[in-house]
Specification:
Helices cover 32% and strands 23% of the residues. With 529 residues, it is α/β, with parallel strands linked by helices. It has four domains: 122 residues, NAD(P)-binding Rossmann-like Domain (Rossmann fold), CATH 3.40.50.720; 179 residues, 3-Layer(aba) Sandwich (Rossmann fold), CATH 3.40.50.720; 130 residues, 60s Ribosomal Protein L30, Chain: A (2-Layer Sandwich); 70 residues, ACT domain (Alpha-Beta Plaits, 2-Layer Sandwich), CATH 3.30.70.260. A seven-stranded parallel beta sheet has the order 8-7-6-9-10-11-12. Strands 14-13-15-16-17-18 form a six-stranded mixed beta sheet. A five-stranded parallel beta sheet has the order 2-1-3-4-5, sandwiched between helices. A hairpin with a 2-residue loop joins strand 17 and strand 18. Helix 16 packs across helix 17. The protein is elongated, with a radius of gyration of 30 Å.
Length: 529
């Protein structure tokens, strides 16, 4: 998996003390330094294996480049907008978050914002502090019977919907991933966005900030809304176009807005904050004692589990790697990586189309984690610093390598209980096939030649192809090993194809010079798995 031992973790923001305590109890050294400047962070991160942040620390490509030992960035919260996930992926750094940690707190704040908009509670409270008694000025509306549109029906969105249903609100919504059948189970009718705008009295957004969601509410969509629509954004600044919102407020098309987040935080342009129909908070969605304790506890436990090899949860950019921690999948990932390395070595190329075929019911869902493993094996001998299951797919694409998978439930009878993995370099005769025996990855076939006794794929290996009638190659190899003081640990030969056999030899150490062997064989390779 190409992950080293986690030793030192930097916490760059204020978190519940339980975060530090759990990390230390897990055997990790912890450095707490909240409020670091960019320059200070660049200095502090150099010798850290892990970094834990909330939302203030910007984990940029520059920070990641400075972090020579960094293996994981943990975000104590839901979104990862402040982390350059692509740059982290490229470097093989895991990014993880705590998607459930602050869901309830963010949902409750959203519900409070909706109530405040309906009854103008903050404005009325401020008026009272000024010594006024303006009962007529703060005429509100009942929520009962009103329509609430929830855009984004993940954990927070559905918590908001179910709570506001208790006030008698009709809940409609939109989510490109959650199916209408699923959203119906928690009382939300899904509609196309074009049908949502004119039907909504209140709109609340609960999506991540993506190119597709930036400016989701804009001049065009406000124009399609009911006049006086109320808008809530406790998700991410930028989902609601702030300029368009201000124009809609000024024209009366939007009757009020409640904002916990802004495009720039804190906002320098105060026009929205100062508008009389705007309620605003300084990004308090996760600011409860319970959420902070929960997020700190969860991210610490996730990092300790990773450090101890127990498992991976909350991974944003290395889902395949999370499978690598399961005892039943570890040997298959090792096999796939080894097959990729053997195929690349024999095929003498790292570009082109590689086809993975999994055979047998046990491997039906294996494509998701075998694909990056094969890619990592193919790229292992290249110029990349380090190829892991985190960055293998991205680096493979950039290297001109396309890896695809197919599956068949039918496997040879001898492998039906475990499964078989075939990896082919399309457009060439090169194909390798392997399986797992016990917990040992083994090679069953290479370029159509079958090994009667499968060859283990581990440690220093020497692979050669020679005429089946010529036994001098093995004798020459034995002499080379003797001169080098190395041992022959295993020997496996294949069936004969076109008068030639493949041999795989397990060595105690690689040989530095194969000059004597090369005249005896058609081709020879050394690799270390």
């Amino acid at each position: 998996m190409a992950l080293g031992k986690l030793q030192k973790v930097l916490i760059s923001e204020s978190l519940d003390p339980c975060c530090r305590e759990i990390l230390q109890a897990g055997g990790l050294r912890v450095q707490e330094k909240p409020g670091l400047s960019k320059e200070e962070l660049l200095q502090e991160i150099r010798d850290c294996d892990g970094l834990i942040v909330r939302s203030a620390t910007k984990v940029t490509a520059e920070v990641l480049e400075a972090a020579e030992r960094l293996q994981v960035v943990g975000r104590a919260g839901t979104g990862v907008d402040n982390v350059d996930v692509e740059a982290a992926t490229r470097k093989g750094v895991l990014v993880m978050n705590t998607p459930t940690g602050n869901s309830l707190s963010a949902a409750e704040l959203t519900c409070g914002m909706i109530l405040c908009l309906a009854r103008q509670i903050p404005q009325a409270a401020a008026s009272m502090k000024e010594g006024k008694w303006d009962r007529k000025k703060y005429m509100g509306m009942e929520l009962n019977g009103k329509t609430l549109a929830v855009l984004g029906l993940g954990r927070i969105g559905r918590e908001v919907a179910t709570r506001m249903q208790a006030f008698g609100m009709k809940t409609i919504g939109y989510d490109p991933i959650i199916t209408p059948e699923v959203s119906a189970t928690f009382g939300v009718e899904q509609l196309p966005l074009e049908q949502i705008w004119p039907r909504s009295d209140f709109i609340t957004v609960h999506t991540p900030l993506l190119p597709s969601t930036t400016g989701l509410l804009n001049d065009s969509t406000f124009a399609k809304c009911r006049r006086g629509v109320q808008v809530v954004n406790c998700a991410r600044g930028g989902i609601v176009d702030e300029g368009a919102l201000l124009r809609a407020l000024q024209s009366g098309q939007c009757g009020g807005a409640a904002l916990d987040v802004f495009t720039q935080e804190p906002p320098k342009d105060r026009d929205l904050v100062n508008h009389p129909n705007v309620i605003s908070c300084p990004h308090l969605g996760a600011s409860t004692r319970e959420a902070q304790s929960r997020c700190g506890k969860e991210i610490a436990m996730q990092i300790v589990d990773m450090a101890t090899g127990k498992g991976l949860t909350g991974v944003v950019n290395g889902q395949a790697l999370s499978k690598a921690f399961a005892p039943q999948t570890k040997p298959w990932i090792t096999l796939a990586r080894a097959l990729g390395t053997v195929l690349c070595t024999v095929g003498k190329q790292v570009q082109g189309n590689v086809q993975i075929c999994t055979l047998g019911t046990p491997l039906k869902e294996a494509g998701s984690y075998l694909t990056p493993a094969v890619a990592a094996g193919m790229l292992a001998g290249g110029t990349q610093k380090e190829v892991t299951l985190v960055n293998a797919t991205l680096l493979a694409q950039e290297a001109g390598l396309k890896v695809t998978t197919t599956h068949s439930d039918v496997a040879p009878e001898s492998d039906s209980s475990t499964g078989l993995v075939q990896v082919s370099l399309q457009g060439t005769p090169h194909q390798v096939t392997g399986t797992v025996q016990g917990s040992t990855p083994v090679l069953r076939q290479i370029n159509g030649a079958t090994f009667k006794q499968p060859a283990p794929l581990s440690g220093p290996l020497l692979i050669y192809r020679a005429k089946a009638s010529d036994t001098s190659a093995l004798a020459t190899l034995t002499g080379l090993l003797s001169k080098a003081g190395a041992q022959l640990l295993s020997y496996h030969s294949s069936s004969t194809v076109a008068g030639e056999q493949w041999s795989i030899v397990g060595l105690s150490a690689p040989l530095s010079n194969l000059a004597e062997l090369k005249p005896r064989v058609t081709e020879v390779f050394q690799l270390h798995l």
